[in-house]
């Protein structure tokens, strides 16, 4: 069977912005696997009723079901170790250190992206999902979207969070060395999420083409025949 | 030949606090290798005249010379891959991600430790080295030691830098998973540096025994028969 990847969709079916679903998409492309991409809404999870998860991504293939982007990486390495560009994760030390990249990305960097694009994100979400999304996220933020969305605060968080990424990428072209793998996809998921829903750059009013992190983002955009670069953006699709 | 590790010494020869030398010491212990520890001063580098480095650690063994703690890790993995507790670094993905831990540790976290203990460090340094150390470091800080040493500023930097370490160590006992390896030694070098030169805790006035990072530090202190815990501290040795 062709692998099936269940993803979140936005107000238009071409808008697929979930950072976690992008991790899975990029991991499939890394393995050279084509997948059927099936959309889901927050408020209608019937497409993934067949499994135990209430969130996407969910991957179903001939080898079974993998839920959560990280488990999808593990599933793909277990069942397609040598396919495409090879292992996503690597040996035991590599996996332990990937966990650090994951925690760093999700607990330090992600909130900066979220505060940068929160209102654009809300507008990109399917109308049926917006009330659920607003209510659940505002409970988590402890403030309304209109206050949480704060470009200045966001850039402060991101400038600080980007520092070690820049330090690393000044010395090697990808997080995972000479070629991209799991760590690159973990981090890039948030860049492509913000890129699809919003025209506001995480780097400020003007981007510095000499910035190693800008250069890395461009390299990531180019991967797999420009897969991320070609993804339709909210600003390109009429409301 | 017995491996020889050239290290920085302090005002007393028992004071060996360099974070980079500790990385090398821990890596040797990881491999189960005993080494002769040879002291050096900033102002008398004659002990390492035999090689191209002007800094310690320098390791010399039957296989050659390795300069810089990171190169010592690579040297030990190359020549003693299966000794003791096995590989320090791991596969190519593991090495690429270790570079992120290294950059994070040195470019984000280290300055917090330095601002916490700068004056205690100056007092722990050999009297012959103090003028050199003060002058060279003040040029780098852009301010005098007395201003750079700022416990409140230090704790702010460390609280923030510790966040993803805590997030990781809440889920796994060591940076490198079930057992310590290169990432743990990279990070711990700064903890043991501060611990030896100063009685000021990086965690604040009272340490929380339930904090996963405090628990990790204690596990690191216990390694190799309590090697780090047994290291003489400046406060135990009269001026």
UniProtKB/TrEMBL annotation, chains A, B:
GST N-terminal domain location: 8-84
InterPro entries noted in UniProt: Glutathione-S-Trfase_C_sf (IPR036282), Glutathione_S-Trfase_N (IPR004045), GST_Omega/HSP26 (IPR050983), GST_UstS-like_C (IPR054416), Thioredoxin-like_sf (IPR036249)
PROSITE patterns, sorted: GST_NTER (PS50404)
Superkingdom, taxonomy of origin: Bacteria
Gene3D superfamilies in alphabetical order: 1.20.1050.10, Glutaredoxin
Name listed for the protein in its UniProt record: Glutathione S-transferase N-terminal domain-containing protein
């Amino acid at each position: 069977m062709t692998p099936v990847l269940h993803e979140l969709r936005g107000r238009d079916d071409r808008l697929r912005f979930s950072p976690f679903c992008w991790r899975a998409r990029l991991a499939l492309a890394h393995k050279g696997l084509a997948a059927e991409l099936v959309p889901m809404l927050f408020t209608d999870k019937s497409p993934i009723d067949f499994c135990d998860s209430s969130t996407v991504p969910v991957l179903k293939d001939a080898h079974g079901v993998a839920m959560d982007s990280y488990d999808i990486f593990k599933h793909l390495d277990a069942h397609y170790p040598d396919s495409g560009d090879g292992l996503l994760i690597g040996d035991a030390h590599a996996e332990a250190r990937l966990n650090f990249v994951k925690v760093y990305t999700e607990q330090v960097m992600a909130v900066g992206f979220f505060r940068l694009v929160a209102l654009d994100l809300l507008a990109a979400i399917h109308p049926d999902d917006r009330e659920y999304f607003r209510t659940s996220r505002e409970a988590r933020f402890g403030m309304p979207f209109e206050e949480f969305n704060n470009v200045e605060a966001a850039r402060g968080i991101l400038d600080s969070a980007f520092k070690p990424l820049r330090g690393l990428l000044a010395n090697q072209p990808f997080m995972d060395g000479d070629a991209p793998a799991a760590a690159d996809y973990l981090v890039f998921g948030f860049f492509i999420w913000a890129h699809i829903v919003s025209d506001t750059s995480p780097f400020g009013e003007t981007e510095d083409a000499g910035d190693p992190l800008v250069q890395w983002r461009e390299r990531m955009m180019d991967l797999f025949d420009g897969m991320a670069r070609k993804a339709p953006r909210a600003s390109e699709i009429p409301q």
